[in-house]
Amino acid sequence: MSLQLNQDHLDLLHKIRLAYPTGKIYLVGGAVRDLLLEKEVKDFDFVVADASVELANAVRRKLGAVGFTLDDERQTARVILKKKGRQTELLLDFTSFIGNSLEEDLSQRDFTLNAMAIDLDQPDQLIDPLGGLTDLKQRRIRLSNPNSLQSDPLRVLRAVRMIRTYDLKHDPEFLDALRVATIDLNRISGERIRDELLKSLDLPGLDQTAALLQSSGILAQLNQRIFGFSPEVYPESYLSLLRDLEELLGLIEKEKSLSLSENSSPNGYCLPTDHVLGLKTLLSENIQGGRSRKQLLILFSLFFMQHRFAPENQQIPGSKEENFAELNPEEVSERFMKAFLLGQKERKYLESLCGGYLTFKSWAEKQDLERLDLYRYFRDFGSYGLDSALLYLFLSASDASVNQKFDAFATKIIWTWFANYEEIVDPPHLIDGDQLQKALHLEPGPKIGVLLEMIREAQVLKYVEDFNQAIEFAQKTLEEMEEL
């Protein structure tokens, strides 16, 4: 088949060809697929018979780019090229054949869609020994060889991303092959699983991605990895709740004002556009490793939605609790961290997210949230408490079993963060420990911290408004403590 590449692509391939005039260079994999689909290509993979690192170094010098070796054993190197006049970068990866020839290399790739190549000497001709072009036209995914998934079990997750990204059809045999191969996911590092899973969860149609993860058996294996067991039956509401979460996050992304329920509006806590914009900014914050709060919230929800509805007789090994919703927040975050090799900052985020959720449960008997409730909530969870509130916003809107007043509580929490930050969330300090020690002639010790926190709470309740009142309040409180 003849290819119609644009001039920028032809120029790039020509420059790379000139860097290695004595040997064959082939463009392979996803770049070829996306060029056929006329999609933007940001990652180019090239293979050669040998000297791939030397080729990468020659390309780096010729293009005035930067680069480094990715894998010494497989002789894989990367060149990073900044596109002229644009912020985006092009990644050029160079490696040697898997096997002894191009045909053998292509046959060892994951799917036929990714097993096509272009000879840089004939960039207008497609090399397609496995029929990838036909599969691409028919929007169908097939394995490049019967052992494709077993050779790298991470490919089961990549299959989900491919199906969802390109809206591909798959036959029952393909799904059966995925189910068999998921058993070997325990061979794969948490880091690789995490990165591939997050790519799929970033795609539009979160419920569709979850449905495919479920039907392929991947979700069960990931639950096993995290909690040591997987729910035997997924609740009917599971996918619809994930769809509602995506809809809520979509409204925030579009900076739309949120009038979430009848319970919110009478109390005056409908979220205006500027509050939603603030939420969008916070959710885009990178916690660690380039992973955002929004990504971690979705990852958490993917499993939270299942275990929240787990039958009471399903007990997590090693835990006295009966289901995920009741687990200690530290235990939940620890399990996620180990399963996906998350960092300490991400662990703290998940701990706060779960802790905020359980705090909502403790408010079941409350009719409204008082100023002190709000202050203590943010003292314990900081801005991460907003993400816990988002969990309840879509839960209470979608699920009749959830206390419906919690959506008003959640909206009030978000409102308070943006509208009453200095008054309730983090009021200015009226006095510090040294000043308190000096004024009351106190020795250093934990009592200082207790008094300072009591002053802060009195400040939130408007009992204390300046330095002198803070001293008077502390003196009176100290006298009462000594009387006890």
Account of the protein in words:
By secondary structure, the chain is α+β, with helices and mostly antiparallel strands. The protein has 23 helices and nine strands. Helix 12 packs across helix 13 (273-283), helix 12 packs antiparallel against helix 14 (293-307) and helix 12 packs across helix 18 (384-398). The model is unreliable at 260-268 and 309-322 (pLDDT under 50).
Give a quick rundown of the structure.
By secondary structure, this protein is of the alpha+beta class. The protein is 54% helix and 8% strand.
The number of distinct structural domains comes to: 4
Overall outline:
elongated
Report Rg: 28 Å
**What is the mean predicted local confidence, pLDDT?**
87
Q: What's the tally of helices?
A: 23
Structural class comes to alpha+beta
Poorly predicted runs? 260-268, 309-322
Strand percent estimate:
5-15%
Distance between the termini: 90 Å
